Amino acid sequence: MTTVSQDPTAAVAPRLGRRPAPHKAKRDWTGWKFIGPFMLIFAFVLIAPVVYSIYLSFFKDQLVGGNSFVGLANYIQVLGDQKFWESLGRVSIFLVVQVPIMLLLALFAALAIDSARLHFPAFFRIGIFLPYAVPAVVATLMWGFMYGVRFGLVANINDFFGISLPDPLSNAWVLASIGNIVTWEFVGYNMLLFYAALRVIPTDLYEAAELDGANHFRVIRSIKLPALRPAIVIGTIFSIIGSFQLFNEPNILKPLAKNTIVTSFTPNMYAYNLSFSGQQYNYAATIAIVMGVATAVIALIVQNRGSRKEV
Amino acid sequence: MKIRSNKGLRRGAAALTGALALGLALSACSSAGGGAETGNADDIAKALDTETTLTVWAWAPAVEQIAKDFEKEHPKVTVNVVNAGTGNDQYVKLQNAIKAGSGAPDVAQIEYYALPQFALSDSLVDLKDFGFDSFADEYTDSTWNSVSLDGGVYALPQDSGPMALFYNKAVFDQYGIAVPTTWDEYVAAAKQLHAADPTKYITNDTGDAGFTTSMIWQAGGQPYKTENSTDVSIDLQDEGSKKFADTWNQLVEGDLVSPISSWSDEWYKGLADGSIATLTIGAWMPGNLESGVADAAGDWRVAPMPTWEPGVAASAENGGGGDAIMKQSKNKLAAAGFLQYMNEGEGTQTSIDAGGFPSTVADLNSDEFLNYESDYFGGQKINQVLVQSSKDVVKGWQYLPFQVYSNSIFNDTVGKAYSSKSDLNAGLEAWQKATADYGNEQGFTVKAGS
User: Fold this and answer.
1) Min distance B411 CA to chain A CA atoms (Å)
2) What is the pTM of this model?
3) Could you say which of A9, A272, B182, B364 has the lowest number of CB atoms within 10 Å?
């Protein structure tokens, strides 16, 4: 016995041999049963399409010549595709300009409603949130009519004041006009996100601040803003995703500004038109994958930076 | 009230032409029966006497009614008409079904400009298989040419759109402007009108692929050539294309066209209030004016399309299309029977009654059609102008085998010239390049430029 126990392999072997046996017997599927339905749907609606898109992106199906495996050729083509980079540049500008404006407005609105100095805060809360409840399609159509320089609101303003506003749907202004629509739509949503975060701050913190003689701005700076940081990070990530996925607004405005909103105005529109009017499903899938990865990377960076500052 | 009585009259006489068309169809059948296609004509008749269900994708409003009438005549055949979208929307679904290998209808409506895409990709049945090439003489040259591709016949024409100049006579009279007969006169009229009243424009144009290709067609341009199905050449700087662009430049660069897009609300308003004074457009337009611009009843007239050389009549087709049988169809014979009924037989009159402009010679030349006086057009016999246009269509035009996509990127390229009011030739060159890139990408051998 002693010799056996001194042998290292012999000492390990029974331990290894003993372990799996009871483990196997105890194998419990209860957990899987609970998450099974979710996993099934998750695999079906998320994993499968992504895997299929990746699969598609390695092929090239032509009207003449049929389907063939091309390896990474589609990815190399994306890297050199001027239209793709132009569209990515456009949504990047949109992201850098529109998102801060929207989040600052939302932050201001949330702080104002939370300040308890506002009459009828519920009215303002609903009022600011309401545009979010309007479907994006309807909102864009509505704004599209207002932007009209011949029969829309812009025309009326021009006539009434005898001035000549620039055409909101002209080359120089169209991105700003879309930014305006998106801001109008999503300020309320972000405001609610921030407001919810403000409501969970324990009131004893405010009482302590009051005892210390802190004024309102001091309370905002030292209590409210730090407490809001996670919500701001979340809001920023959502906004980045939203900007990169910009599609509804430009696509619906396109009939009104067909010469300024090109078919490759945003990466999503580009992918959409490639696949649905150009039958280039494989290349469209490649663009979708590239954009998905780019969005995930940028969102991850924001999240890491956001939580690091929090410390 | 006026319109209603008008329709009654049309319908009354319609029965007559309907009978005529039927006679024509019958004689066509019997002539086919005498030839080598005997088996085919009999086979079709046999197929129509068996329990069959046909699926038809079409958006033309008359097709529902035609299907009902057809079912009455052939009780064993059920025809399901599906509106799978208009134009490009439907082509996308069709292309997807072709790619998937199943799910395509038996019969599909396809416009002339899109037909090469489906025909050359071997997705459509060559109607010669049913002896339908014997119908050639029954259709106008231009529409028959549009469905005859690469030695085959891939659709039966349904409607057509020979172009004409629709003009607002009230506006022309008010400013004492003569109706232009050449494009130079047209440009002069544009200047005269806009100078007299800066709110008024000779026409609207924000860049439209269909209009541009039709204008190049009329100018004698032949920018697209396809040989052996896959060898494509594009030259949007050939003589005809340049002729169009140079003339149209004067209007675009000179701010002489209204920057309103066709089919928008503003467009209809402009057509009604006289701020858009003319439209050079297909012969299917009268019905749209009657319903969409009812306020301007009595103001509008139709004149022949202005020409490039004085006194040399020329026109082009704008829009219109036919119906084809898909290769995927499992009921090709019955489908052929329906197709013939719809576009060669009694269905043609139903299409005319629904406002379509026919492509069948017999219908075009019937007295009832030619002498129809339109109240909307101040009692003018508009069909005489429009039918003449169908005879003057310039021969030899071809569309690309990927025209649908090419047209979808027209505004990305030529549109820039419109929005910056700069040279359309540069825009056409950019369009040519983008189109050629796409063609090469899709495996065609594309030669761009002359």
Assistant:
1) 5
2) 0.83
3) A9
